[in-house]
Amino acid sequence: GLVEKAANAFPVNLILLNNYAIALRDRGQTAKARSVFAKACGQDPSNVPTLNAWAILERDAGNAGSADAEFTARWLFRKAYDQDPSNVPSLSAWAMLERDAGNAGSVDAEYSGRWLFRKAYDRNPNNVANLQAWAMLERDAGNAGSVDAEFSARWLFRTALRASPRNAAVWQDLATLEEHETNLGSLTDPAPMTARYAFEKGCEASPGDATIRTAFAGFEKRQGNIEISVTLLEQAARLETNRRSRCRAYFDAATLLYWNGQRDRAHSLYVLAVETNPKDWRAQAALARSFGYRREWNLAEHHFSLSLSLKRDPKTMQWRDHMRVARERASAARK
Fold it and tell me: CA 273 to CA 114: how far, in whole Å?
């Protein structure tokens, strides 16, 4: 791409090299990204953005290492910290490594997750990404707390929302916490800081966000509210810009309706799913099954063939065989 061409044209430009390495990392080209990061660090071994970006690559590749193991994530994060102990993105990214490695620690345990999150917080108490990531640590550690209990999950989420009240991702994470704590909220009038309230606020905060609506739909499905879940999935599908995700939203809504006995409504949504992404074998198989239920045998055969050309799924073949038996019985009954 353009970044690669620019980096090749100006091989001593550190910013271009760094951007190129990040682009490679984000595309999953780990080995090539490493070589570009190494070239960038060769030009400036103390450049914090480069060290931090490389450390994230190693973290996500599972190469956590240690502060003494050269070019591992922890070694690179430590190098970045030694150069700039006030760099919030670097501190927060390192804290996430420690959180995910089970090294939650405490705010007094040097280089533990909580210690690093607290360092980042002290430097910028309104950094939403840091607050959100720390809240997830506390949630997973069972420290839900309250909005008044400093550095508990609820306190951190509330602080993040005060800094960014229209952040749908934070509302969604808060909702998952409250669902886990069985603080669900009523359908008609959900109380503040309940799961349903947080989902609704997140949807209001970001009217064009498909992700939170999909998550909200999953929540309502778990509560047995099928019609609400379907409505949310339909909204998500209309908002979704990714073809595969839009297909999945239509598919999930259709499947809920199908197994709830509303097969005509389900059929129309299966049609939308296949129109959205004809290469989704599950959607093709489900539409074929729906056509079989409607006794539109030729269309059922057609979509079973399309599905099986995409994936030879045993269950799809079983559905097709059942449909063929039903077709033969229907034909015999007419004679």
Answer: 44
For residue 335, how many other CB atoms are within 10 A of its CB? 4
Question: For residue 33, which of 10, 56, 13, 12 has the smallest C-alpha distance?
Answer: 56
DSSP letters for 87-155: -HHHHHHHHHHHHHTT----TTSTTSHHHHHHHHHHH-TT-HHHHHHHHHHHHHTT----TTSTTSHHH
Sequence-distant (6+) residues with CB within 8 A of 277 are 243, 244, 246, 247, 283
Q: How far apart are CA 47 and CA 8, in angstroms?
A: 20
**pLDDT digit string (tens) for 215-235?**
999 999 999 999 999 999 999
Yes or no: say if 306 and 278 are a contact pair by the CB < 8 Å rule. yes
* Angle between helical axes of 88-100 and 48-60 (0-180°, round to 10): 20
pTM: 0.86
244-282 pLDDT, tens digit each = 999 999 999 999 999 999 999 999 999 999 999 999 999
